[in-house]
């Protein structure tokens, strides 16, 4: 076999080795590419998982925030409602107290007016009683004076009557003396003069 005949074979073998090396290199490149592709897919998968988890977490956080806002709004509404109810109760209580106070003073003024009227009536009654008492005392004094005057009149009349009786008795006695003197024949002029003077004393 000559050198010229061996050259093509050598070339073919070189080409084959080159082709094999190229194939091995391509195989390594493909394997590396596949590995990188799988790593990229894993990274993307992990990234997507993280994104999904982050989104879920964000949704949960947003949900929690909404729930907190709802609770806060509910608490604010409840607090406002309680304040309004308390304010309404205070206004109603104040209104009730004002009405009770007004009614109390209406009743109190009525009681005071009635008491004042009773006091006036009592004063009027006492004044009338005092007036009646004074009138009664005056009547009693007048009656007593009248009785005293009548008694004095009666005593005077009785005294006059006694005096009249005494005068009559004296006149009868004097007439008897005069008759006796006349019967005895005595002078009765002096006796008559003395009797007349005695009677006029």
TrEMBL record:
Organism, scientific name: Paramecium primaurelia
Signal peptide: none
Keywords: Coiled coil
Coiled coil: 29-143
Stretches for region Disordered: 1-26
Name listed for the protein in its UniProt record: Trichohyalin-plectin-homology domain-containing protein
Lineage, uppermost ranks: Eukaryota, Sar, Alveolata, Ciliophora, Intramacronucleata
Domain Trichohyalin-plectin-homology: 9-184
Pfam families with a match to the protein in the record: TPH (PF13868)
InterPro entries noted in UniProt: CFAP210, TPH_dom
Start-end of Basic and acidic residues biased regions: 8-23
